[in-house]
Amino acid sequence: MDVIIAGLVLGALYAIVALGYTMVYGIIELINFAHGDVFTFGAFVAIPILNRLVNQNDFNVPVGQSIFAVTVSVLAAAALCGILGVVIERIAYRPLRNAPRLAPLITAIGVSLILENALFQWQGGLPVFTPVAISRSTYTILGSPITNVQILVIVVAILMMVALDLFINRTNLGKAMRAVAQDREAASMMGINVDRIIAVTFLVGSALAGAGAVFYLLYEGSVGYNSGFTLGLFAFTAAVLGGIGNIRGAMLGGIVIGLISSWIESLGNGSGTEWYEPVIFATLVLILVFRPAGLLGTNTTEKV
Amino acid sequence: MAARWHALTDAYHDTPLLRRFAVLLVVVLAFLFPVFMGSVGVDDATFAEVYVLLALGLNIVVGFAGLLDLGYAAFFAIGAYTAALLASSHFAVNRTSFHSLLLTVGPGGIHVNFFVLIPLSALVAAFFGILFGAPTLRLRGDYLAIVTLGFGEIVPKVVENLGDGNSLGLPNITNGVNSITGVDSPPNIDLGPIHWTFQTNDPRPWYYLGLIIVIISVIIIYRLRDSRLGRSWVAIREDEIAAAHAGINITGTRLTAFALGAAFSGFGGLLEASRLANVSYDQFLFTVSVTILTMVILGGIGSIPGVIVGGIVIAYMTQTWLTTVASWVHSLGDGLHKGPEPVSTIGAWLQSLPVTSAKPMIFGIILVGIMLLRPAGLWPEQRRARELHPDTEKTLEEEQAELYTVRTGEI
Amino acid sequence: MAEPVQPPMLETRDLSRRFGGLTAVGGLNFEVRLGEILSLIGPNGAGKTTVFNLISGIYPPTSGEILFQGQSIGGLKPDRVRRRGISRTFQTLRLFDNMSVLENVLVGYHSRLRSNLIGDMIKPPWVTRAEHEAVERARSTLEALSPRLLSRQEFRAGDLAYADRRLLELARALVSEPSLLMLDEPTAGMNPTEAAEFMQRINRIHADGYTILLIEHNLGVVMGVSHRIVVLDYGEKIAEGTPEEVRQDERVIEAYLGRKATAT
Question: Do residues C163 and C193 make contact, with C-beta atoms less than 8 angstroms apart?
Fold first, then answer.
């Protein structure tokens, strides 16, 4: 049960990051390697804010102060990450939209390197710790302890997912996004501003990553300059598992990957922490072999 | 009639006299290089040779087949560890002892002859390439990027985890975080005037060995490019569906490129392992994959001379130039720091400028900059230049449309 | 016309393909006989190109069978189909624009050129000889189709004029001497003079012994060149026969004219 709870929390975090990958891939068929680093950027934005807004030596933070600090840092991280995402798209991806597929993939990896090294220069190579922003309290569910932070992460992830689902399916902007994902040319002929829609996609996906990063901090307590890169790899695996391009699939995939990794990590003799990365990667390859369309994806034949 | 064939016969026959002469000159200079250079210079050059070999191999994957391999260092590691495990004292066999020209087994470890390891390291790496490439390449090409990225992360991790007292209860396979030392050197070569003794204190035989290998590789790669297989790679890049309808097996052709790239990388691993006599999992991290990718992109995707130049430039940059530039910048900072107020702040800033640790950022800037500004690289390959510049293509099409309307207008 | 009794070159049995809820081709039966020119006609969206894509292996049939020279080829990948001896052209030209004219044709010869990795690396004499033979074949194919194309063999394919590009695609399909040649609207985008010229070429190719399956929009062209015609509407066969028979078929007239009448 402990494992399941930890897995769900981890899974919720993967899911939030997976959303960014899946949205971008869905709309421009690009693996946005920089997404994981945008996530780390969000965490680094949040750290000084949290440092300022909560007393670093006090483990009993008043509830009001917690809510304020978390809200402010989520908004700031989401806003700055969103802007960063849009800037990246504008500079590194948009000029290459009609180039061979290889070109934007290469700039994506280049942007990731630039960002990651910038984060390294900014905060150094060691993990950066955050103050306790929410005083821990522990509840018991089915005989297992669960902290309020864990509950918060799961609830927030579900809320984000529902909100995003409503946004994509109910709003005009969301409908336009789906139209562009379906057929960019047709969408543009219908009067949809494709460039703007793609920018919005990056904005939303990156903002989600930024917000997710704050909850990651609350849960993990620290972040390193390269945390996002590995997390991004797992989140991408989650996105593929759920069916790339599929929002609900990303959620499901995230949770499955979270459960797998927390299960592997729980294995004794230290083998867990050593082997969860290879296992998750093997999962990715196995999905591609046996169910390339993912759990919730449908097999689409390439357009001719 | 013979003159008409030049579309696909050997690139060599295709090249004008002046260029043939230039190539010859470069080769001669490369052979004379150690005569003029000190031991350190030759050592750096040998390092560059290994990386040029890797870049040439990655160019088959990225440049010829148009696939992004972000875990190229993993195959480098596989080749290096193949050499390290099969040609060192790591696996001591106490019960039996066997000795022959090609293979020695006994308490002194397993020692496979270097010339057996040449094909073996390439084959083992190619095998892993096929193992991970085959399921991925059936799908869209760009999934390969993420799978190779994962593969590149995992291979060092697995090597790290399979050392002494590993958590799986397996015997010590890779020596884990401790590197494997004492990897065998190639056997000494005595051919007439050539006496090559492969020792760590004399880089020259290594340099010549590397040079010969690079030259042979370049010839092979040119031939591949101009072969039926090379044509298939171009055709697939241009139009997958039309290529399939022309009888080209898409997955198989891509897989061949991927496995060939892996083979070159594995082979490079063998060279590096025996040159340094030492392998460690942290020699093969993601940075290495990125370094090699940057060489290919900088020089020019698909362009063999471009990739060689890119490889040399980046190898020297990582090896020496960056430290040199860093010391210039820092000593400039030292000087300015003594000056008056505004100047001293700049000096302090320069002093603290992290030139050497910014290597990934420099690579990132090169990757993004080249793709945006000069996508075919510094030394472009003709066809690639046309593919990567959609604007010029558009004007040609427009031109053509104009011609067409004029022509039909007459009728 | 006395029809010789021959086994069909190509035969479809209850061939169907659905995309989601849409049936693009439903229960189609027809055959192509050795040595004939069979045309597939029908209004826009009748499923003609889908039939081509099914035969050439772009996607597998939902149900039904495709037999080529007596063997089932339904669901085979395009390269396998080509190796069996079926080649095709595309309604929207698909040339390798950045390759030379000669290289385009050589790619078409791919399935006939035997080589392997080691051979390509080392280039022993027999591989070089095979390559030279391939070049000769490509050149003679170009020459037979159009001496002008041959004189432009070093041109970038994307730089050719439209009609030449069509010819080049035809050369790429022909060079491997397929048993069945499938042409998808080869005269699309040509003016009447060019179209007529092109159809004369098709006739010449047919005279060389090729079996041809043709999709054509232009009824005038079809009637002149085809031995038999299969008419599709909404993915089903509504008529089949010689040009005269089809011309007089009520349902064909309705499918074409009726639709047009309501459209205008």
Answer: no
B5 and B106 in a single domain? The answer is no
Same domain (yes/no): B13, B159: no
| Residue B67, domain member (yes or no) | yes
Q: Are residues B26 and B118 in the same domain?
A: no
- What residues of chain A lie within 8 A of the CB of B158, using their CB? 278
The pLDDT, as a whole number, for residue B4 is 39
* Angle at alpha carbon of residue A166, lines to A165 and A170, rounded to 5°: 125
Sorted by where each begins, the domain ranges of chain A are 10-239
pLDDT for B402 equals 45
Closest residue in chain C to residue A299, using alpha carbons only: C20
The tokens for A79 are: 């806003």
Which residues of B fall within a CB distance of 8 Å from C172? 246
Same domain flag for B2 and B71: no
Which 345-364 residues of chain B touch chain A by CB within 8 A? 354, 357-361, 363-364
Q: What is the ipTM of this complex?
A: 0.89
What is the CB neighbour count within 10 angstroms for residue A171?
Answer: 11
**Set of chain B residues whose Cβ sits within 8 Å of the Cβ of C190:** none
Which tens digits make up the pLDDT trace of B357-393? Answer: 888 999 999 999 999 998 888 888 877 777 776 544 4
Cβ density class B129-167: b for 16+ within 10 Å, e for less: bbebbbbbbebebbbbbbbbbbbbbbbbbbbbbbbeebb
- Nearest to residue A48, comparing CAs of A177, A280, A236, A214? A214
Q: Is residue B218 part of a domain?
A: yes
Mutate which: B228, B229, B239, B398, vs C, most C CBs within 10 A: B228
Residue C6 has pLDDT above 50, yes or no: yes
Domain final residue, candidates B284, B308, B334: B284
User: Does residue B18 sit in the same domain as residue B104?
Assistant: no
Q: What is the mean pLDDT of chain B?
A: 85
One domain for residues B159 and B232: yes
Last residue of a domain, one of B284, B318, B345: B284
| pLDDT one-digit tens code per residue, A34-86 | 999 999 999 999 999 998 888 766 667 788 888 898 999 999 999 999 999 99
Q: Which DSSP string do the residues of B354-372 spell out, in sequence order? A: -TGGGHHHHHHHHHHHHHH
**Host domain of residue B223:** 37-284
The CATH homologous superfamily of the domain defined by C1-85+180-264: P-loop containing nucleotide triphosphate hydrolases (3.40.50.300)
Domain borders along chain C are 1-85+180-264, 100-177
What is the CA angle A6-A12-A17, rounded to 5? 130
In DSSP notation, A92-114 reads IIGGGTTS-THHHHHHHHHHHHH
* Neighbour count for residue A61 (Cβ, 10 Å): 19
Q: Which chains touch B (3 or more CB pairs under 8 A)?
A: A, C
- Give the pLDDT of residue C259: 58
Handedness of CA A51, A52, A53, A59 (dihedral sign): positive
Shared domain check, B24 and B165: no
> Does the residue B367 lie in any domain?
no
Taking 50 as the threshold, does the pLDDT of residue B248 lie above it? yes
C21-69 tens-digit pLDDT = 888 998 999 999 999 999 999 888 888 999 999 999 998 999 999 999 9
Sort out which chain A residues have CB atoms less than 8 A from B70's CB and list them. 109
Tally of domains within chain B: 2
Same domain, B14 and B78: no
Give CA–CA dist B174/B166, Å, rounded: 10
Which of B68, B147, B297 lies closest to A285 in CB terms? B147
C218 touches chain B (CB under 8 A): no
**What is the C-alpha separation between A161 and B380, in angstroms, rounded?**
46
Residue listed under structure tokens 């010819």: C167
Q: How far apart are CA B315 and CA B304, in angstroms?
A: 16
